[in-house]
């Protein structure tokens, strides 16, 4: 995958079947700009119907999570093969809510990344520091640890299946956004880390999304930064009008 502009809506635990169908119905009526890849991540229960409804459209349906094992006695979990069987080829891994509420640390996340890559899926790998880390100016170190622990074991070839999403936890659902300068500073640092651990070509090719209170009013400025390739959108992705305003925010 070469560097591309991406806007992905993470619907989290919102929207039942009929709400999912209604929102997708609205989105399908919109004109998606050709230079932007648009993704939506509905709940597991709605993935199949969502995939079925956007088959012919320029919207990709992605999953919010998956289990690392291929199958077996893991009550309540969903495997890569199950996602693929309903048409889902991309999965969000390492979201801060998974890290925080479901104890997903680097070991589990690296296994999940491996499982996704072994199944030829694309991974949207999320990471980002908490408020305390930011206040104590430890944010670069935290991001470095999260990337080193969950992702930097993959091969050079596998980077073509990776999208990164920097989501500072203090900006998620809080209305508090990282300033465009803070986002650029971190995204630039992330490319430096990749360059040091792999090479410059990989660092320049990977798409790095920003997530955390992206809204129609701030998307343009954030997406205007040179190392920001788009956004992972929570709350504002639940309204067609707001989501499309963000999709259309690229220069
Ligand atoms: P908000 O856009 O609601 O802050 O959520 C961001 C997020 O967590 C996307 O994954």
Quickly list its features:
8-stranded parallel beta sheet; binds 1,3-dihydroxyacetonephosphate; 8 strands; alpha/beta; 251 residues; globular
Task: Describe this entry's structure for a reader.
- It is built from eleven helices and eight strands.
- By secondary structure, it is α/β, with parallel strands linked by helices.
- Helix 1 links the parallel strand 1 and strand 2 (36-41).
- Helix 1 runs parallel beside helix 2 (47-54), helix 5 (106-118) crosses helix 7 (139-150) and helix 10 runs parallel beside helix 11.
- It is globular and about 45 Å long.
- The two termini are 22 Å apart.
- The protein binds 1,3-dihydroxyacetonephosphate.
- 1,3-dihydroxyacetonephosphate (13P) binds next to strand 8.
- 1,3-dihydroxyacetonephosphate binds next to strand 8.
Helical run tally: 11
Helix content: 40-55%
The radius of gyration is: 17 Å
Instruction: Give the low-confidence spans.
Output: none
Name the quaternary structure.
single chain
Proportion of residues in β-strands: 15-25%
What average pLDDT do the residues reach? 96
Described by the principal axes of the CA atoms, the overall outline is: globular
How would you characterize the largest beta sheet?
8 strands, parallel
Q: How far apart are the termini?
A: 22 Å
SSE pattern, N- to C-terminal:
EHEHEHEHHEHHEHHEHEH
| Counted beta strands | 8
Which structural class is indicated by helix and strand composition?
Answer: alpha/beta
Strand order of the largest sheet: 3-2-1-8-7-6-5-4
Distinct ligand kinds: 1,3-dihydroxyacetonephosphate
């Amino acid at each position: 995958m070469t560097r591309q502009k991406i806007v992905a809506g993470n619907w989290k635990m919102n929207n039942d079947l009929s709400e999912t169908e209604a929102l997708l119905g609205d989105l399908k009526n919109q004109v998606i700009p050709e230079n932007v890849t648009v993704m939506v991540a509905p709940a597991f229960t709605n993935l199949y119907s969502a995939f079925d409804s956007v088959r012919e459209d320029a919207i990709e349906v992605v999953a919010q999570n998956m289990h690392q094992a291929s199958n077996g006695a893991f009550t309540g979990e969903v495997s890569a093969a199950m996602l693929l069987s309903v048409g889902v080829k991309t999965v969000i891994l390492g979201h801060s809510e998974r890290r925080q509420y479901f104890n997903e640390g680097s070991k589990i996340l690296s296994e999940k990344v491996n499982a996704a890559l072994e199944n030829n899926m694309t991974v949207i790998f999320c990471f980002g520091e908490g408020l305390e880390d930011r206040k104590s100016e430890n944010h670069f170190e935290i991001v470095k640890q999260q990337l080193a622990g969950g992702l930097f074991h993959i091969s050079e070839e596998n980077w073509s299946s990776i999208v990164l999403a920097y989501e500072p936890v203090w900006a998620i659902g809080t209305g508090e956004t990282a300033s465009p300068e803070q986002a650029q500073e971190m995204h630039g640092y992330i490319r430096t880390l990749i360059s040091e651990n792999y090479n410059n070509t990989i660092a320049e090719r990977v798409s790095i999304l920003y997530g955390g209170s992206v809204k129609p009013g701030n998307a343009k400025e954030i997406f205007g930064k040179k190392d920001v390739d788009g956004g992972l959108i929570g709350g504002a992705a639940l309204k067609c009008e707001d989501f499309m305003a963000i999709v259309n925010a690229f220069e």
